[in-house]
Structure formats: C-alpha cells, structure tokens
Amino acid sequence: MTTPVLKLGIAGLGRGFMLLLPTLAAHPDIRLVAAADPREQARRQFTADFSAATYSDVADLCADPEVEAVYIATPHQFHREHVELAAAHGKHVLVEKPMALSLEDCQAMIDAMHRAGRWLVVGHSHSFDAPYLRASDMIASQDFGAVRMIHALNYTDFLYRPRRPEELDTDQGGGVVFSQAAHQVDIVRLLGGGRVRSVRAATGNWDPSRPTEGAYGALLNFDDGAFANMTYSGFAHFDSDEFCGWSGELGQPRDPQQYGSARAKLASIHSAEEEAALKNSRTYGAGLSLDNSKPQDSAHNHFGLVIVSCDEADLRPLPQGVEVYAHTRRYLEPLSPPEIPRREVLDELITAIRHDRRPVHTGEWGMATMEVCLAMLESARHGREVSLSHQVGLPGTGTL
Amino acid sequence: MTTPVLKLGIAGLGRGFMLLLPTLAAHPDIRLVAAADPREQARRQFTADFSAATYSDVADLCADPEVEAVYIATPHQFHREHVELAAAHGKHVLVEKPMALSLEDCQAMIDAMHRAGRWLVVGHSHSFDAPYLRASDMIASQDFGAVRMIHALNYTDFLYRPRRPEELDTDQGGGVVFSQAAHQVDIVRLLGGGRVRSVRAATGNWDPSRPTEGAYGALLNFDDGAFANMTYSGFAHFDSDEFCGWSGELGQPRDPQQYGSARAKLASIHSAEEEAALKNSRTYGAGLSLDNSKPQDSAHNHFGLVIVSCDEADLRPLPQGVEVYAHTRRYLEPLSPPEIPRREVLDELITAIRHDRRPVHTGEWGMATMEVCLAMLESARHGREVSLSHQVGLPGTGTL
C-alpha cells in the first residue's frame, strides 16, 4: 500500500520557502496544491510552476478544502496568527523556526492545534540534518554511554547578508538568537536529550549599523547533569566551515580562498531601503523560480562544529557522517549523500499525519527551544542564570 | 652593556623542570647554579649536567648566597611554603602554575614577596606563548578595535597520561581546572584585558577510575562587557590539535594517524603504584637528563583553538603566527619559529629583575587567574554565577 501524497499549502513564498523548495519539489509524497503571499509576482510564479491555486491572504489558503497541511513560512511575528488560522480550518501544520517570539504565542499555537486534533511540526531547523539525527540514534543505542558534554560553535556571515529592517531588530525577532540559536539550541537539545534545566548566556550587539545580537556564548545545564557550551558569531570574520571540510551550511562546496564577500556586497549599498530591495530582488517570483531550486548539495546540511562527549566516545557530526572518537580507534560512521536534501522535516510531518507517530519536533519541542533562546536573551540582559520550566525530552525515552 | 647572567636555583626537578629545561639550558642570560630535590638521583644528575650545588631541602637552596632567583616547580601544594622561604632569603621567584590552591595562599605569597622587595613571576603558563603575546600586542595597538568575545577550546588526553594519585584528587590540586584551566584562563585573561567580573562553569567528573575533573565548560564575563566561552576535555577522545595544523602543545609535529596512545599505554597498568612508578621512570635523573632536553619544537607552543573577536577582525593565534580575519581580507601575521622555546617566561623574569619593569604575570595576576579557576569549581558545585573581586588588568592599560 503506498502512502497517499500529502497535499500541502504554502503560507509565505519568501526565503524559508526558497530554502525548502528543492525538497518540496523533489519529495515523492508531497504535492503543492496552493500558496498564499501578498506579492502578486510570487503568486504568478507559483501558478506557473505548480498549476496551483494562490491567495493573497493566508486565511483563504487555510480555507481551501484541497489543502491538507499548511507550511507556514511567513515572517516570525505572524506565526501564531497563521497557525491559529490553519488550526481553525482543521489543517495539519509545519511552522518555520523560530516557532514564535514569545512563550505565550507558542502555547497558544500548541493549544490551537490540540483543540483541532491536528499535528504540529516545527521546522525546518538544522536539528533535522541527517548527521545530527544519526548521532542522536547512535546515542539512543547506548553503545557510547551517557552524553556528558556538548560543544557547538558556528562562525558565519549571518549579520552581513542583505536584511530587511525587522531582521535587525530583536523586538521583531531579528538577530542571531532568534534566527540562529533556534538552530543550535535545537541541535544541542536533540543530542542532550531535550531537557535543559538552566541557561547562562552573553550576547554581542557590537555594530551600530546592524543593531541586534550578532553573536553569543551560552552555557546550558541539562536536567541529568550534562552541559553544553555554545558559541555563535555572525560577524563575517572567521568562518567555521573550515571545521566542516569547507562544506557549507547547505552542503555546498565552499571556496576557502573566497573571503569577505558578504561585507563586500553590502559595502556597495547605501540605505536600508536599498538593502531590502536587494534582498527582494532575489526572491521567489522576482528573479527566482522552481528552475533555480534544483538541489546542488553534495553533502549534508550542517550548522558548524558540534562535538558530543559521551562516556565511551566523542561523536562529531560532519557533512559526510558522524566521526567517532572512541577509546582506542577513530572512524567515520558514514552517511550516503542526500538524494533529497532536508527531506527529514517533511518525512517527520508525513509520518505523523499518515502513521499517527508523534514527531520529535512537536509544538512542545519547539516551545522548549524557544524557551532556551528567550532565556539566553534574558540571561544576557540581566547577567544571571535563568531557570527553565517548559522543557520536554525525546519521544521514546520516557522523559517527555 | 650586556645584562649580567641571572643565577637561578631550581626547587623541584620534576615534570615542570623537564618542560622548562630546554629553555633554561639554551637561554643566554640564565645560569643554573643550584637545585633542590628530595630524590638523590635527580640531584646527582643535576650535578653531572650543571656542575652546580644541590640540596635535598628547598630551605637550603634558598639560603645559598649564589642563588639570585628561585624557580619553584615543586608540587602545587608546596608553592606557598617555598615562595615564603625564597622571600625570607631575599630571592626573586618564578613559581609554576597553578600559583597555589587557595586565594589565601596566593595572598600570602604576594605579601611575602612584597615584604622582601623582590619580583614574583607566575609561570610558565601558555599565556607566555608567542602567538598569544603577539595577539595581545595586536589588540593593544587598537588596530582591530575592542575585544568583544573570546572562544577557547582544547581537547587533549590529559586525564589518561600517567599520574600520581594526588594529580587525580581535586583537593590536592588535581584535575583539569587546576592544571589546565590555569593555562586557558591565563590566555583568555591576557587577551580579554585581565578583569573578569563573574564566572559560570560546569565541570565533568565522569570516569570513576580517574575521580577528578576531566572536562569543563565556562562562560566568563569581563568588566568591560566582553565575554569568553571556554571548553576543555582531557578525556582522550577528539583531539583539537587538528585545529592547530596538527602541531602539538609543545610545537612538535603530531601524527593524526596515531590515535589512542595514552589510553593504550595506560591499559597495560594495573595499579596506582604502577602508574606512579611509570611516571617516575621517565623523570629527571631516572632515564632523563640534559641530553633529553634539546629543543625539538618546530613551531610555537599552543593551548588549542583560540579565537578573539574584535570589532574589526577575528584574531586566531596559531603555532606559526596570528591569523587575522578582517572585514575584507584574511592574512597571517607571521612569527619566526622559536629559537629558544618558552623563553618568554624567563625574559619576563629577567626584565623585571634587571630593568625593574613590572611583569604581566605578577603574583596579583596569578592570583586573579586562580580566582577564576576556583570560581569555576564553585560555580559548578553550586550551579550558580560567581562574582570575582581580585582581578587585575594588564600593565600600561591604566586598569591595574
């Protein structure tokens, strides 16, 4: 018996959609049946690419009876409203990270989906990347003993890519804590079992022309005594893809001789409007279409250096697999190159809907990750340890 | 006018002395005139190597009128007593890290040296390594703007090298916080300006057969708002010399194909006595002598990955120099290979004594580093932020 194709509607044809488009287009169990976006050119492109219905309002998309599930990839601040709309129409939901900008919003989204009796998955985040999932499986096998310490580091040019003004305003969900810690925390929680007890963090907001968090350091303490040290810089100086074999975040080959391109490009721009225009000039329906979204990845997605210290070995997820540093030998637990990059997030959604299997990345999971991110901001602001109370564990571990 | 040679006496002919012996033997401005050690074979070897006086008691070494300065490399727990002896006899002192195991002892050592009117330098620590000193000079030049964030990481086999029982007992100064954080904190303080305001840390004591801290993660907040994230593992799994071009802690070339040698060697040992005997079988006077101490280093000493994020660039001290990741270009600020490895610690001592120039690594500096290390242990034990009150800045910055 084959699984019936999942009829998916897309809310928001922006950057999140473009990143997932290669996956959406290639996944055999997904059909794009509708989309909503305020930009007419994006809607026209969607019709051309998928011969599917389009709407200017997310509400109308959610009301479309053809749509079984909605992928909500609208700007962060609209996630709650759009999840509630989808729930009200009985749709399953995949909502982009960060789930929302407050715990109140996260809880409202969870409650709405519970009331509707539909599945909610939060993603894509990099914790869906195959190397982290494989490492998580290896940990669950108990072959390597308990997880004791996790180190995660990522140095990118995040802050100097073209941005809309709200992406540089923390109050509107801008900055690296909402956009990037949401990945790193999700990975670290996946590998550490999920339940963080308390957080101490410091954040860096150092460039007055990009007035939001561009860097952070954080120490996470888990319920079971394990701890994690996370460092992130989006200031476009050192590039930690060096520690991932010069494979990029999306699995693409990087050229270490290319340096400073993000800042160089920005240097030619003279206003926030011009910058936003540049960003919008390369978006779906405006220069980009299905044709630009063929998977070019040669290795798995990653989010920088991650080392998980277990009793019996250190595990290091890499774009080609998981390097195991055991007591007496070191070896790669290999992963086949991805045929459909990022398919894991859709597989989790489909498995939940078709087989009624609880996903890892539930609303509760996403809320727990946001609780850590918000605690990082609070800890940095007030210079103190912040205790957490909304943490959840991994399915099947009895610690949910 | 040439500087008169410094007549140095050695208190303790153990591991610290062996590590510094290539430097002591090669430095043109140092002459070894006496030594003290309880082991007769060590004393005999010293006489053979240096035609110099030897004593079984440090007190007698300190009373020797030939001795101008004493290098105190006895076990940690004797540092205070031996510094006080040297001070009582009007000698200058170089005392090994960790300076002492309590702030009370550190203060007593500082007071004794002040009363004696003699110089006290604390080292060798890796913060004397030329790449960190060069990075510190580059920061002081203000060419790169303010220091904002420091990341330091080191994964070694520290815990599985042959140890005496007290080296595995935290109360006696064992474990990686006293022995290894003393390096890493010293480096981070040097690069961050010295004044740490508060510390949050977690430590790992995971192997019942090595019952002391083998790992830690720590977040340090500096007075000026900068912060540092430090991670250390001595559990002999992942090896971070990979991030230093496979150059080892002492600048020696490493073979990445060699793996697990520390644990393999230890696996053939069946008791603490046997392990201590193994350690003692390769020590000065017992298998080792001046002949075994020729400098073999091809690059500078280092202490793992260090990245200093400044406003204008990330600086990454490496065994060959300091890699600069600036806005638009990346380049190596090169260092000549060391002619005399670790000479910087002796140069600082000699410059203080001969030119009356205040060293960086004063007793107050060493005490501030120990305050951070002790705060790390306290923070980990009680799960809370620990505030500091004995911090000092760098000379010449007006923040002493």
From TrEMBL, chains A, B:
A family per Pfam: GFO_IDH_MocA
InterPro entries, alphabetized: Gfo/Idh/MocA-like_OxRdtase_N (IPR000683), Gfo/Idh/MocA_Oxidoreductases (IPR051450), GFO_IDH_MocA-like_dom (IPR055170), NAD(P)-bd_dom_sf (IPR036291)
Record domain GFO/IDH/MocA-like oxidoreductase: where: 132-241
TM spans (from-to): none
Occurrences of domain Gfo/Idh/MocA-like oxidoreductase N-terminal (ranges): 7-124
Protein's name in the database: Gfo/Idh/MocA family oxidoreductase
